[in-house]
UniProtKB/TrEMBL annotation, chain B:
It is a multi-pass membrane protein. The keyword Lipoprotein does not apply. The chain crosses the membrane at residues 20-40, 60-80, 92-114, 120-139, 151-175, 195-217, 246-265, 322-337. This is Branched-chain amino acid ABC transporter permease. Coiled coil: none annotated. Belongs to the binding-protein-dependent transport system permease family. LivHM subfamily. InterPro entries: ABC_transp_permease, BCAA_transport_permease. It is found in: Cell membrane. Keywords: Amino-acid transport, Cell membrane, Membrane, Transmembrane, Transmembrane helix, Transport. Pfam families: BPD_transp_2.
Length: 381, 345
């Protein structure tokens, strides 16, 4: 076979490109719940990942996305594969709390940076290599409690998932209440699973306790069913939802029953309604413009914002870390962690991040925005 | 706990139980006729509910494409079998056309009807017509060539079919859940009790289906043929009853029952692409109560599961599933003590 000159040039160019890329790529392992019970969170996150730039500080990004199906075992396997086979420079994920917790151990052992996309509570000392991108439950509970205080709420009924997300909220909400609003008490706590077809029993018990407000801890469109059950049992008080429910699916599935409820959220989804003084306003508008250009109008959501923010953080830390080592080396990985810890005040679409050596929950208490559902749309309170 | 709370919980439990009863019936039916423990029964529930939900948005549901793909594969198999066996072309061409005719027709009808925004009940009928042929296709593609395998092999295939159908449902319906509008928006108040129109429809539809199944098995020739296959496959075949056709028919009925359950449960809760599994599993628990053989016992077991679930969620919400699925243990114990059996498979 005779090669045409164009073909030869192309082949040579490809070879050079491949060889060059193989040496200096920054490899990022992303584990998301693309199937399974948290896929409603994982799919928008993956959409956000697709908006990442192809190069940062002149280095090409090689992104490997794996599905963990929100299953802790699978997530831990993905984490091991990332650090042993793929030799990644950092890991992003998972978006499901139980899965993110399962990934933390193998990643920390190998000395690799983990940027979690869920507010996962890890025991003290276990989060040396893990940083959370989403707002901590405590930070969100802070905004919610401020709002409850203003509304004169004294008693709260809790209806949450029987998993780490529900449990985390219960613990953090109580702790935060003790700090800033000791008069607010949880008077009844009930659990349910996303796959439940009915929460009548739980709703009955909560409504008979007659609290001033209800707190529903659930994610995506799954947050609508418990909400409706409480309303159907004749509850007339205020109903609060967490930041995992801050997507339009709540209104789509909940219909008129979710009217007037309060949802705590990051600023990214309501950029246009934020005051001009809000630090995130411009970046969040950028995010929405890019995201909705790619995925259609009104497709914006909380989770895509988190994965979008990962790129913003990387743009700040990668140039710093590159001074200490080449991608693919141990030095580079350690330098990445150090750079995140010392990056200081960083404005992202979801608020202001300020990680320190002892605090791997980046967001300050100003990040939470209380939204009210009015006429099937968000309204900043 | 007072009387009004107990009555609300009972009503809620019986409403869910009625759905589980339908699924338990389908499970018993399939096991009796084909010896398949059909774990993916719940998937038809999700398919039914989600197909209607997508039709409600005036879009063509992904079910259509899945149906066409599965039909294409089944038709191809028919042709390959025909050629391999050296059958005359006219015969396998006719068999292939028979396989493809109905699914293609209903798919075209749906593609035409979806953007028209027909009333809810028309879309519900369309959904039933669209999901029902899946039963026969699933049987052809997954089970037919294994019809004489052991129960264990068929069970393993069921697990595979379950994962395949869930994955396809995610692909075709997306990750977010849907809730369908109620078929009947009336509410009746009796003291503290509120009976929704949808619950009335659930009771009526379940009761009607049970009566229809009874009549089908007792009065019709097809029903008697199915019962004969259930009692003795070989004997039935010697009497001229095709066990292949019996399998296809029973799977078609199971898919119909599943889709109907999906339509019934859709307005009462949010259905996700994977919601069907747990609903189907509770129907399966009820069927096990009946030893996978008795329809009335399965119905009673299903109501029991529903009520147990409702009270479990009131008393110990965090352990509700544990309570429901542990309840199978005493039943199994009682069953094995009452009629000890030997492993003959």
């Amino acid at each position: 076979m005779t090669m045409t000159p164009t073909f030869k040039t192309l082949a040579a160019a490809a070879l050079i490109a491949l060889a060059g890329a193989a040496q200096a790529d920054i490899t990022i392992g992303v584990s998301l719940s693309l199937t399974g019970p948290a896929s409603g969170l994982g799919i928008p996150c993956n959409n956000g990942v697709k908006l990442w730039p192809t190069t940062i500080a002149g280095e090409k990004l090689k992104v490997i996305v794996l599905d963990d199906a929100a299953d802790p075992t699978k997530a831990a396997q993905n984490a091991k594969r990332f650090v042993t086979e793929e030799k990644v420079d950092l890991v992003v994920g998972s978006v499901a709390t139980p899965a993110a917790i399962a990934m933390a151990d193998p990643i920390a052992e190998s000395g690799t940076l983990q940027l979690m996309l869920s507010p996962a509570n890890l025991p003290a000392g276990k989060d040396a290599w893990a940083f959370r991108l989403p707002q901590s439950n405590a930070v969100m509970a802070h905004a919610m409690l401020q709002h409850m205080k203003k509304q004169g709420v004294k008693t709260v009924g809790f209806l949450g998932y029987t998993d780490a997300y529900g449990e985390g909220w219960l613990v953090d909400f109580k702790a935060e209440a003790a700090k800033i609003a000791p008069e607010i008490k949880i008077v009844a706590a009930e659990r349910f699973q996303r796959s439940d077809t009915s929460v009548t029993g739980q709703a009955l018990k909560l409504v008979s306790a007659n609290p001033d407000a209800m707190l529903v801890v659930a994610s995506g469109s799954g947050a609508a069913m418990p909400h409706k059950a409480i309303v159907e049992r004749g509850y007339k008080g205020k109903i609060y939802q967490t930041h995992a429910a801050a997507s339009r699916d709540l209104m789509r599935v909940g219909g008129k029953d979710v009217e007037g409820s309060y949802v705590v959220s990051g600023p990214a989804v309501v950029a246009d309604q934020l005051p001009d003084s809000h630090p995130s306003k411009k970046i969040a508008q950028d995010f929405i413009a890019q995201y909705e250009k790619a995925y259609g109008p009104n497709s914006r959501n909380q989770f895509a914002g988190h994965s979008y923010d990962v790129a913003l953080v990387l743009q700040k830390v990668v140039p710093v870390a590159l001074k200490k080592g080449k991608p693919g080396t141990k030095e580079f990985r350690a330098a990445l962690r150090e750079a995140v810890e010392t990056m200081g005040r960083t404005v992202v679409s979801h608020g202001v991040l300020a990680y320190t050596k002892d605090n791997h929950w980046g967001f300050t208490t100003e990040t939470g925005v209380m939204l009210k559902v009015v006429n099937g749309d968000w309204k900043v309170e | 706990m007072d009387f009004s709370i107990a009555s609300i919980l009972t009503l809620d439990g019986v409403t869910n139980g009625a759905i589980y009863a339908l699924l338990a019936m389908a499970t018993v039916l399939l096991f009796a006729v084909t010896r398949v423990i059909f774990i993916p029964q719940g998937e038809f529930v999700a398919f039914g509910a989600l197909t209607l939900a997508i039709l409600q948005t005036n879009q063509v549901p992904g079910t259509v494409w899945l149906l066409l793909i599965m039909t294409a594969v089944a038709t191809l198999l028919e042709v390959v079998h025909g050629i391999r066996r050296g059958a005359p072309a006219a015969r396998w061409l006719r068999a292939a056309a028979q396989t493809a005719a109905y699914p293609v027709a209903i798919s075209l009808l749906t593609i035409w009807a979806a953007p028209q925004g027909f009333p809810l009940w028309v879309q519900a009928l369309l959904t039933l017509a669209l999901v029902t042929p899946f039963g026969s296709l699933v049987y052809r593609l997954a089970y037919e060539s294994l019809a004489d395998a052991t129960v264990l092999v068929l069970l393993i295939v069921s697990v595979g079919v379950h994962f395949a159908l869930t994955g396809l449902a995610l692909l075709f319906f997306g990750a977010e859940g849907f809730r369908n509008p109620s078929f009947w928006d009336e509410r009746f108040s009796i003291g503290a009790l509120t009976l929704s129109g949808q619950a009335v429809i659930i009771f009526l539809a379940s009761a009607a289906l049970i009566v229809m199944l009874f009549l089908f098995f007792e009065r019709s020739l097809y029903g008697k043929a199915l019962r004969a296959t259930a009692v003795n496959r070989l004997g039935a075949r010697l009497m001229g009853i095709s066990s292949t056709n019996a399998g296809r028919l029973s799977f078609t009925m199971a898919a119909f029952i599943g889709a109907l359950s999906g339509l019934l449960i859709g307005p009462t809760t949010t259905i996700f692409y994977d919601s069907g599994f747990l609903i189907g599993l509770k129907g399966f628990v009820a069927a096990v109560f009946a030893g996978l053989s008795s329809y009335p016992l399965a119905a009673v077991g299903a109501l029991g599961v529903g009520v147990l679930e409702a009270f479990g969620s009131f008393w110990a919400s965090a352990f509700k599933e544990v309570i429901v699925f542990t309840s199978i243990l005493p039943v199994l114990l009682w069953r094995s003590l009452r009629d000890p059996h030997s492993d003959e498979e």
